[in-house]
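FAQ: What does a ligand-bound record look like?

Like this one, built around nicotinamide-adenine-dinucleotide:
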Amino acid sequence: MQRRDFIIKTAASGLAAGAFPNIVLAKKHKKYSVALIGAGWWGMNILTTAIASGTVKTVGLCDADQNQLDLALEKMNELTSDKPNLYNDYRELIQQEKPEIVIVATPDHWHALPTIDALKAGCHVYVEKPVAHTINEGKAMVAAQKKYERVIQVGLHRHAAPHNKAGINFLTSGKAGEIKMVRAIIHYNFFDRKPKPNADPPKGLDWDMYCGPSKLMDFNPDMHPKGFRNYLEFANGTIADWGVHWFDQMLWWSEEKHPKTIYSTGGRFHEDRVADIPDWQTATFEFENFTAEWEHRRIGGGGSEKHNIGVYFYGTKGTFHMGWQDGWTFYPSNKNAREEHMNHTLHQPDGQNIPELWDDFIRAIETGSKPAADIENSHYATNMSLLAMMSYKLGRSFKWDGTKQSTVNDPEAEKLLQRVYRAPWEYPGL
Ligand SMILES: NC(=O)c1ccc[n+]([C@@H]2O[C@H](COP(=O)([O-])OP(=O)(O)OC[C@H]3O[C@@H](n4cnc5c(N)ncnc54)[C@H](O)[C@@H]3O)[C@@H](O)[C@H]2O)c1
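The answer part, i.e. the structure of the complex:
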């Protein structure tokens, strides 16, 4: 079968020209004061992009770990002459700096409170995905955005990516036919990671602040930096870390918001490891008009299947695969028809579309229009991950009333919509 390529020029490195169409048009752009909360890997990716766009002056950096702040400052000094003040406590940063924009790139258990506090203080917020750690936190964030009328952009950069937009257009124009089943996957190899014994937190890390509203966990060097995603106190497993990107695409394509029933199962290879997220997991979501599946495993990622990541849309005219570094591909059912393909439009090295999302964020602030990854739809995409984790923990399916954001006569499941915060932190009010 011949392959027809719609090749879009790929930004192989750095930022592609045209990544900031709004901003480039407006030559001498206003500079917004910006502060970053969570100065780790992804936070610095966002801040670097914001600086490259010419739209910000960095006034503050905040991290619970002084070592991370030192690294961030070093990087800042290479990028700009801005001299941000450094903070360990995000509340002080917001109060002292009164930034116009706050970027929240902390681990997931620390998304809700800084976002809501920043909105309250009048800031626009770019908060990372998944929106929250429990469903009622996300609900409170949606309510706070409505109350304080600031813009929230969620870091679901695939919602602003040219190749993803083109893929969704392909699907909604009916080229794949009628679609009743979708399936998202990620398979990768994880077991080269060796367990490490618990240890004292490194000097400079305020572990109490890091744990914040979660339990005060014993520190394990595997947890930080970056490793929080493997621990249920701080995150919700691969289905929340990766799945939320693909759930967002499903909701975008279908224009549906909530599944009606959810079932998820999975497990772990070695219970004695410190990390506690599922090593494999499947989930089934029944929507009004289609069925969605999730499947991940942290083994067998090495090319045993043609695509190891992405979301498949199974249509009456063929199968559409929305991928990551492999772009998207349509495999027609008709053997005489040609495959269609579009390369990715990602920025490297981390394969992301933050420039487009940042550009869209600034557009939303300046025009009052809805941002591409707005808080409400991103909350619904996050809910799919969190609902699946609830089912995984319960060991059974349950019904969901999305309009009420409540389980259906299910007090046991309902309890999992929020969790008890460790004092002095208080669960955000609705
Ligand atoms: N959109 C994407 O594609 C994408 C990709 C990677 C990560 N992320 C998201 O970005 C977030 C951060 O992930 P990461 O990989 O950069 O992790 P990371 O560990 O590299 O960075 C998180 C930082 O937050 C700091 N932190 C913890 N508690 C804090 C607090 N109370 N106040 C201030 N700082 C605090 C940590 O010390 C750490 O430096 C996560 O929510 C993750 O899901 C999104």
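Follow-up question: can I read anything off the structure? Yes, for example: The chain has 13 helices and 17 strands.
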